[in-house]
Amino acid sequence: MHNNTQQPQSLLQALSKKIPPDASFLQTVQAIRSLGGDFADFLQDKDFAGSDLSGVDLTGAELDGANFIEAYLEGTLFNEASLQNADFLEAELQKAQLKKANLKGAKLHQAILDEADLSGATIRGAELLKAKLNGAILEATDLRSADLKEAQLEKAQLQKADLRNASLQNANLSEANLKGADCRNANFENANLRRATLDNTRLQGAILKGVDIDPAQLERKPQTVWEIINQPRAGRQLKQVNLSSENLREANLKKAILNQANLSETVLQEADLTEAQLSGAILTDANLREANLTRANLSSANLAGAGLREAILKNANLNNADLTNAQLAEANLSGADLRGANLAGADLREANLQNTDLRNTNWQEANLEAANLTGARRDNLPIPKQTRQPVSKTQELRFVIGAIPDQESQELEKIYGSLGEYLAEQFNQSQSKHRVQVVYEAVENYQAAVERLRSGTLDMVWFGGVTGWLAQQQVPQIMAIAQRDIDAHFRSVFIARQDHGIPSIEGDDPNALTVLRSKKITFGDPLSTSGAIMPLFYLKQAGFSAEDLAEEDQFSGSHDATIERIKSGEFDVGVLNQQVWESRQKDPNQDLDDIVEIWRSPEFCDYHWAIHREASKRFKELFDLALPTKVQAFLTKIDSSASEQHKEILRLFGASKFIPAGDEDYTIFEGVLKEVKDFLPSSVKLTIPS
Asked: CA-to-CA distance for 130 and 134, rounded, in angstroms?
């Protein structure tokens, strides 16, 4: 840079005297140079509102947050430019080139992008309300969660575009090419898709209410969804149909024939299924909240894990139905036939069970608090308000373990499946009254792990320090019992791509993290102790604010996902836990040659096993010690010198042994969470004592 280069503000003031306001961009650049300025300084100002930059080559420019409101940008080259959170309100971008540009979070409200080339661009979460994209090229473009309501996309090229969770209500997509596009869970309500190409388009879970389309354009499954939503009629024949994971919210399925249909994970919230035939249907994990199933036939149906809160099941036939872990709080089941049904672990708090037939029903661990059982026929039904009940001597006991999903699911299955086998052996060797089965069940996210331990559908969970502490705030009956030897002295690791040139930081003083200012940092799950909470705490100590670190989609969800983001170059710096990082470095299948460690944090307490004290009630006749004490003993006796099984378990956990842990080991997180709560997404709900 020249020595006499002026700051952008003063440079622009000088320009206003040297050239007229309507000067071309080329004249402006020439004027900058005649004043001894640098073109880069001009770009740094990032305020181009109302400017005429048509045809200008801005390939690869760093223009995050730039102001292009009402700018004239016809034919402008933005290929591979970084335009995150840039504002293009009502800008004219006809025939502009934006190939592989990064427009995450950009505002393109009412922008004109007709015939623009956005192939391979990242437009995730961008605002394109009422934008004009007629004839635009959006092939392989990332439009996840983008707002395209009322957008004009006539004849747009959207082959292999990613439109998952995008909002396209009232959009015009007539004659658009969506071949191979991923439109799962997108909202097309009242959109125009006439003559659109939909070959191999993924529409699972998409909202198709009011969509203007010839149903023949759709493949069989989405065609059925469209017909159910938009052409309602009673008695529809849908026997053995597969509509798993589809969105049928508020659908009219009165008297529908759905025997043996696959409706697993389907959204049927507020649907009308009055007198529907659902015998043998699969409704596992389906969302039936507030659905009307009056007089429906659900005999032998599988409703395990289904959400039926506030649903109406008056006089329904649920004979031999599987309702394991179903959510039936406040549901109306008056007069229903539940003979032989399996309601193990079901939540029936405040449910109306008046005059129901409950004979031969399995109620193990069912929650009947405040349920109305007036006139119910019952034999083995526990007294209401007992949420857990000791099982009979003829039944097998289940001890269900879970873990926060901080790694790839295959890795988690391997780790906790191995430990489950060991625990089952210990349970069954130490007593002979009942056979105990230890089961590992995966959870969707960190918050779900807390909720499932709270509700009692999990007995013991492998938590991070933060999630375990939060669980205890919600449910005092949860207690920490064991941790690995490494968890008493745990650290977070900051990593980066070697070619990004970020220097290694000596020592563990958080103040040294100031060198990361202006870098894009990605974290794991927002509630990950080592992948988010503690790193954010140290960054705050170094003077970073929530605004300094704010990035679109900055939480990857897991440590492995964080590594992948750094490998791809999507972010400059990633943070994860030391054990996962060291494990992946030793894995010959991991390609980490280009990734380097740049900093290790100070030590803190992290992972631990937590158990629900109430689980002891089911096991009280088996052991002379309380269940938490017994399980703690099982864990701490694992010794790598005892057997290959023990050695393998410790290898998978990256530890030398398990040691006792107590609730007091994690009280530090109350203060930490108060410090970092403003750095977390609004979706994260924290319970922190005032």
From this structure: 12
Which pLDDT value is given to residue 662?
82
Residue 573 contacts residue 522 (beta carbons within 8 Å):
yes
If one counts every other C-beta atom within 10 angstroms of the C-beta of residue 266, the result is: 27
Bridge partners (DSSP) of residue 182 are 162, 202
- Please identify which residue in the block is written with the tokens 């938009």: 230
Coil, strand or helix at 598: strand
Question: What digits encode the pLDDT tens for the residues 447-464?
Answer: 788 878 877 778 899 998
Please list, in sequence order, all residues whose beta carbon lies within 8 angstroms of the beta carbon of residue 538, skipping any fewer than 6 positions away: 492, 510, 513, 601, 602
Q: How far apart are CA 467 and CA 471, in angstroms?
A: 6
Instruction: Say how far apart CA 379 and CA 35 lie, in whole Å.
Output: 93
Q: Nearest Cα to 447, choosing from 417, 467, 473?
A: 467
Quote the CA–CA distance of 252 and 129 in Å, as a whole number: 31
Cβ density class 444-470: b for 16+ within 10 Å, e for less = eebbebbbbbebbbbbbbbbbbbbbbb
In what helix (H) or strand (E) does residue 27 lie, and over which residues does it extend? Answer: helix 25-34
Q: What's the alpha-carbon Rg for the chain, to the nearest Å?
A: 30
Whole-number Cα distances in Å, 124 to 106, 139, 530: 9, 14, 27
Residue 590 has pLDDT above 60, yes or no: yes
Distances, alpha carbon 154 to alpha carbons 131, 195, 220, 402, in Å: 12, 10, 24, 48
